[in-house]
């Protein structure tokens, strides 16, 4: 199985779009989180696995929907993305 992400909720706060979702490591050491944003200014990964962490492997702001993250093998969690 490969790294996957799912958008759970979207909202707007002022002039910013906020996207909340989950990611599943699928046995991989990271992958792309599809935020659905045109420009991602912040992405906060929150690993649900007790051991390991997830870090963003790019520099913000990021043009496009995909934000690459690096993690330990098979780390699952949630994310919050903010942008336009």
Describe the structure.
With 84 residues, the chain is an all-beta fold. It has one domain (4-83): Immunoglobulin-like, CATH 2.60.40. It contains no helices and eight strands. A five-stranded antiparallel sheet has the order 1-2-8-4-6, with no helix packed on it. It starts with a strand and ends with a strand. The mean pLDDT is 91.
Coarse structural class: mainly beta
Total count of strands: 8
Q: According to CATH, what is the class?
A: Mainly Beta
Beta-strand percentage range: over 45%
Ends apart, CA distance between termini: 31 Å
Radius of gyration, Cα only, in angstroms?
A: 12 Å
* Major sheet size, sense and barrel closure: 5 strands, antiparallel
Structure annotation, total helices? 0
Mean pLDDT: 91
CATH architecture: Sandwich
- Overall 3D form: globular
Q: Give the helix proportion (percent range).
A: under 10%
**What is the count of structural domains?**
1
Would you tell me which CATH topology applies? Immunoglobulin-like
Strand order of the largest sheet: 1-2-8-4-6
> Low-confidence spans: pLDDT under 50, at least 5 residues?
none
Order of helices and strands: EEEEEEEE
